[in-house]
Amino acid sequence: MLSILWNFIIGYIRIGIANDDKATRFLYLCKTNNIEIWKIKQTEDVVSFNISQKNIKKIKKIILKTGTDIEITSTLGIPNIIKKYKKRIGFLIGFFVCILLIYISSLYLWHIEIIGQEIYTDQEIVDFINETQPIYGIKKEKYDCKALEVALREKYSKMSWINCSIKGTNLIINFSENPYQINEMSNEICDIEADKDCIIDKIIVKNGTALCSQGDKIKKGQILVTGKVDLLNEYGEQTETMYVSSDAVIYGLVTYTYDDSIEMNYYEKEYYKEKKYLSFGFGPYLYTPIKIKSEKNTELISTTKNLKITSSFYLPIYITKTTVKYYNPQKKTYTENEIKKIAKKRLQKYIDDLTKKGMKIRKNSVTISIVDKKCIVYGDIEVQEQVGLPVRLELDEHKE
């Protein structure tokens, strides 16, 4: 493969000779003299093959010795391309520089793709990655996907499975969201501790010893299931202690306080014009031909698109489209019915978000009232949700 690439760089030709006894002798002498020929093709009348330009002089003696007539059918390789397009040498140089830049770009990471999550926003996850382990312009071979997986599991502990992989110049984060499944610590010996204050509503222990029961009031950090298991004989006497990886499904009643307020007097934006701007980025550099002016009573909306060659081969080139909307603020006042409808809609969205996370609403004591030209929405929401996270159990702390 390397020799073929090298011959393409220095140039080679394709030769045709008559298919007779002379041809057989010619090919034999080329082989005995270590003259490289390749892509030998034989038909009834002609034998054709490739040979590098540097070996042309070497075969002259063989041609005279065998009396072979040769015909050059084509000249190939970079020297021939340059000769053919010498008037367009600038184009050729630009083409090869472009190929070189694409190759260099392929060694780095330029994009993050999030797959399989609905609870958290993509932007929230991308912001976290950029804060803890940024990827932009980092060499692929130096990026630690395992360390990122650990950081993501610590941050998003309710995710049952997280996997990070690199494809092309793209970092792919695969999430599996299952709010009813505890993140298991493989076969490591561990306890399960409460990750929030709650009242135990239901507990099913698959492995380990339960330290709580239904109706117990639990504080955050309290051990719910321990990996220390005491083995008893028929008389109820302890005979042995073993340590296991705790596994349990635990549901608790958790109370969330909802606190929201909406002013009855507000300003409504009346848009009257907009301007659009394009910015061009390469790596960390951003060029904006026309300076974007952020004035009073304006709203900026930006969208960025990375250029890519394939679905996983992103380039460090991106285009940002910014829309500046101009508006006049108009002072208005909600009626009591209007503001209560808005308050109920916001409360319902909050409840829907809790439900999406696998929580079941048990009680809702939120009230809506109007006080001093303000709508006050306040109260407690009791939900049933999965509680408990695995924590490593240190054996030395349990041994007597």
Describe what this molecule looks like in 3D:
With about 400 residues, the protein is of the alpha+beta class. Among the domains are: about 80 residues, Alpha-Beta Plaits, CATH 3.30.70.260; about 70 residues, Roll (Ubiquitin-like (UB roll)), CATH 3.10.20.310; about 60 residues, no CATH class; about 60 residues, no CATH class. The chain has 8 helices and 23 strands. The strands form 6 sheets. Strands 9, 11, 15, 20, 21 and 22 form a 6-stranded antiparallel sheet that branches. It has a 4-stranded antiparallel sheet with strand order 2-3-1-4. It has a 4-stranded antiparallel sheet with strand order 10-12-8-23, with no helix packed on it. Helix 2 crosses helix 3. The protein is flat. About 0% of the residues have low confidence.
